[in-house]
Specification:
This protein is α/β, with parallel strands linked by helices and about 450 residues long. It folds into 3 domains: about 120 residues, Rossmann fold (3-Layer(aba) Sandwich); about 180 residues, Dihydrodipicolinate Reductase, domain 2 (2-Layer Sandwich), CATH 3.30.360; about 90 residues, Orthogonal Bundle (Domain 3, Saccharopine reductase), CATH 1.10.1870. About 35% of the residues lie in helices and about 25% in strands. The strands form 3 sheets. A 7-stranded parallel beta sheet has the order 3-2-1-4-5-6-15, with helices on both faces. It has a 7-stranded mixed beta sheet with strand order 10-11-12-7-13-14-16, covered by helices on one side. It has a two-stranded antiparallel ribbon with strand order 8-9. Strand 2, helix 2 and strand 3 form a beta-alpha-beta unit. Helix 11 packs across helix 14 and helix 16 crosses helix 17. The radius of gyration is 23 Å and the shape is globular.
Amino acid sequence: MNSILILGAGRSAGAMIKYTLDQAKKYNWAVIVADADLKMAEKKVAGHPNGLAVWLDVTKPEERRQLIARADLVVSLLPAHLHIEVANDCIKLRKHLITASYVSKDIYKLTDEFRNQELIFMGELGLDPGIDHMSAMKSIDEIKSKGGKLTGFISNAGGLIAPECIGNNPWRYKFTWNPRNVVLAGQGTAQYLENGKLKYIPYNRLFKEYRMVEVPGFDEPFEVYANRESLLYREAYGLGNIPNLYRGTMRYRGFCDAWNALVQIGLTDATYPIVDSDKITYHTLMEGYISKPGRPGASVKERIAELIGEREFSPVMKKLDWLGLFAKKKIGLHNATPALILENLLLKKWKLEPDDRDIIVMQHEFDYNLKGKQYRRFSTLILEGKDSDDTAMAKLVGLPLGIFAKLVMLGKVQARGVHIPVQKEVYEPVLQELEEFGVVFREREEEIAPEEHKG
């Protein structure tokens, strides 16, 4: 094999493209980077002798298939809903395919077709999902190999801004990945296991019912809200009988209460348009969410505070005010949904400045029983980016993809069909090489009393 096609050159593609081009020089591979923004693709390729940037409208099947036909391996960094089209093309053209995105039900339906064609589809190869799978499976397999029985698994991760770069931002958060996904995060119902019982947290309560988690190296605990898909990992991780299973997203203190206010007001709703939203102000929009008459003379800000059960100058209200939600400034978006209006506002307020550094924090907790004693193992990753271009997020999304692509190109992956990276032949070499880039999980373990066990 000698040709790799990378579809997409966006925010998280830089580290993957750079790594792949470096390997291409070593192994004499050709790398094609295709994107609808040719200048962006050219910037990522940066004149590398083994690389070629091309323009592609991925929604045009014939042009897409012509590029796929020229490759041995396809790496899709496209929006998740486009993977199914690329997957069908790869089956017809007999090409391996890898992505960082969640593997959808539609993709899983193609398992037999990929296997019958002796093809690899490996999804969830990024950060979360991706590195979380691999690092978790490493510890799970180690615990099982010495006879331990897993009784609890907690995995929390967050893409944050480095503490020194927070400045005067009261949210203590900036965008380091897809803004749309941040705005819509948590919609649906989170499910997890606690003491063998299913637990459910609907969206309207999700950011109110958060946990606190301590991580070594930080002065204060993080807030953690439950992820929607925790139960999906019982079977994938071989934890079918585990009584406690929880996955969560980490934020700095104060974030969840303020985000809960946005949810309660209705500003994260993407199901309907605000008519003539381009002509009204944010102040008018907020007034529109107030249905009950307030006390005479009360301002919109005071009435919103009453609506969400806050004082007018509480920390939550200060965060909403800092965003500009009460400003008499026109929204300027035509018939936009509340979620889109909020996203557009946050893009301005939560934008990374050139010298800003992001930070990734991930921590797993494994409770297990061994020879009648209960233990807890912690596995913690902390990685800081260099600036707004060279981010920890881009590195941790892109490098696992690049390393796995190299393994496929060198014929070192035996698994065929549709998979996520929980096999030892995948996680062992990927995690080992990631350590060369500073991606290191620090582990500690302690014996705990049975009553300390938690889900």
